[in-house]
Amino acid sequence: MKKRVEYLTVTENKKLTDSFFVLKVRSGGGLPEIKPGQFVQALVTDSPSTFLRRPLSVHDVDYKTNTLSLLVQIAGPGTERLSRLVPGETINLLYPLGNSFTLPVTGEKVLLTGGGCGMAPLLYLGRKIKESGVQPHFALGFRNRSRILSYEEFSALGPVWLSTEDGSEGHRGFVTDIPAFRGDKWDKVYSCGPEPMMKAVAALCRQREIFCEVSLENLMACGMGICLCCTVPTTSGNLSSCTDGPVFNINDLKWQTSG
Amino acid sequence: MADLRIKIGSLELRNPVMLASGTCGYGSELEDFMDLSALGAIIVKGTTLEWREGNPYPRMAETAAGMLNAVGLQNKGIDYFEKNIYPRLAEYDTHVIVNVNGNTIEEYVELSRRLDRLQAIPAIELNISCPNVKRGGMIFGTNPSSAREVISAVRKAYSKTLIVKLSPNVTDITEFARISEEEGAEAISLVNTLLGMAIDVKTMKPKLSTITGGLSGPAIKPVALRMVWQAARAVAIPVIGLGGIMNADDALEFIMAGASAVQVGTASFIQPDTAVRVVNGIEKFLVEKDFDSVSRITGIINRI
Ligand SMILES: Cc1cc2nc3c(=O)[nH]c(=O)nc-3n(C[C@H](O)[C@H](O)[C@H](O)COP(=O)(O)OP(=O)(O)OC[C@H]3O[C@@H](n4cnc5c(N)ncnc54)[C@H](O)[C@@H]3O)c2cc1C
Ligand SMILES: Cc1cc2nc3c(=O)[nH]c(=O)nc-3n(C[C@H](O)[C@H](O)[C@H](O)COP(=O)(O)O)c2cc1C
Ligand code: FES
Fold it and tell me: Tens digits of per-residue pLDDT, A101-114?
């Protein structure tokens, strides 16, 4: 798919919690085909300390209204500025970028698991899986009850199991402690979230020889394969997370120790 | 219409705007955004004799108006380049220049010799200024006698247009500009990145795996501009200016300071078609000001 730079119009900016918001943006000329797992590079204006674009996963796509949504966590000045965008304003996006998740085939049992802003790509992935005739299941982890995000959106697509670290909702502990995750037989597991979480998911899947793909959030400068800053050590050498990823099969990764 | 053509040695460029090495991949990555034939030249990724994996992650840190990188010349080496990448590059309707790197003089020479045989590569850019490798690179570019040795050796091995890329991490840039000219370079390009570093206060660790890295972007433009001005007054060969060019006005500053051509680097990460915008902006300026060619304003600040 051809990449493009385009000004999209903000149609909605919904605050979910103190640090999370969902931004909906509409393409005037029509959206290109976007695959689940792909991301955008958002230009942040009026934030003097934000020089580079900010990578954000595609959270959902609505081709009827040519709208895409982004689920964003305020992490610093760039995302803070985006949280103040109001409907009618424009945002400059470089997209669609990156590879995509491998969709399951009919009859497979699939689990989508993530936490925090790592949930972003899982909604659109779940939608695409459902459209393909396979039932998605979700295992989502949060620190506590007040941090739970977008429960309704996910449960509209399939069963959702929750875990919280303090046990205030759902299962107490991490997503990998959810009984259904451990107990059921999964054909494919997809994961995106904080690195320790993805590593725990990967360890479990490796042990049980389950096909597992994770979406990495390496620091990026360009997002289109020209700077080689987003490198990921893999069994076939250093690859670029923005073009060879961000989705990787866990068997190809040599997990880096983050510095 | 203004005449944008320029000459570097025997090489004629359609216009004075190129893509800087290490910031444009092999060009094809940017083809969705612009027609490469609208550019004077593209300088592809830093290349070495051997396959190199580069430095460990993290390799990048954003800074005020710029970024630090510590990529460390990740590339698949000349054999892979010749077999798998070169055939594609040979199809481009623009000049493709290869950025040449090595650990030793012998490696620089051998690589230059290999590239001399590739018909569709009309020039090389000798990188003696990479701050992100332990051996070679900047060590050659910051020591006058090593610089002279490597340029002289490569000159003997390479018959086509030789550009030497200089490091800004020196006290007197004119010394290295003169050495390049004396040893037979057709042009010099400057600047490569400035050596810098950044620390994450939260984790109390350096932000780059290599601790230090190369600073690029608008943060370095005033320094780069000053060095281009100094170098252009010191030598008669063309100077190619770069460092923090984000738009046509930035490029015009370099040209007015004495640069015959410019390169766009980090700006492409943010606005992938910056280089074409720069071409158009330069042309617009010349037409508006009634200059018939870009060479009329090269070094103009020294004349008024
Ligand atoms: C492919 C990809 C997809 C992403 N998708 C989403 C998403 O859907 N929703 C979302 O909220 N965020 C996502 N991120 C992370 C997001 O890009 C960063 O949080 C954002 O760039 C921070 O910018 P800032 O200016 O707000 O904060 P900054 O001031 O730049 O950073 C704040 C802190 O976060 C750290 N940080 C910044 N970027 C990253 C990163 N990529 N990985 C780890 N730590 C980082 C910094 O080191 C710093 O400590 C994604 C990142 C990648 C690479
Ligand atoms: C990620 C990155 C990789 C680079 N790789 C190379 C390289 O391989 N060879 C080289 O001569 N310069 C390399 N450079 C330096 C640029 O070509 C340029 O000299 C420098 O970034 C200053 O220009 P700018 O501020 O316009 O980016 C690299 C710069 C960056 C940011
Ligand atoms: S972010 Fe530049 S190559 Fe991946």
Answer: 999 999 999 999 99
Identical topology for domains A4-97 and A101-215: no
Q: Encode pLDDT of B224-283 as tens digits.
A: 999 999 999 999 999 999 999 999 999 999 999 999 999 999 999 999 999 999 999 999
CB A115 within 8 A of CB A150: no
* Predicted-complex ipTM score: 0.94
Query: A101-215 adopts what CATH topology?
Result: Rossmann fold (3.40.50)
CATH class of A218-259: mainly beta
Using alpha carbons only, give the angle A11, A15, A17 rounded to the nearest 5 degrees: 160
pLDDT category at A256 given cuts 50, 70, 90 is: very low
Rounded to 10°, the helix B274-288/B248-257 angle is: 60
CATH architecture of A4-97: Beta Barrel (2.40)
Chain B residues touching A243 at Cβ < 8 A: 29
Residue B48 Cβ < 6 Å to ligand 2: no
Cβ of B274 less than 6 Å from ligand 2: no
Atom number in ligand 1 closest to CA A44: 25
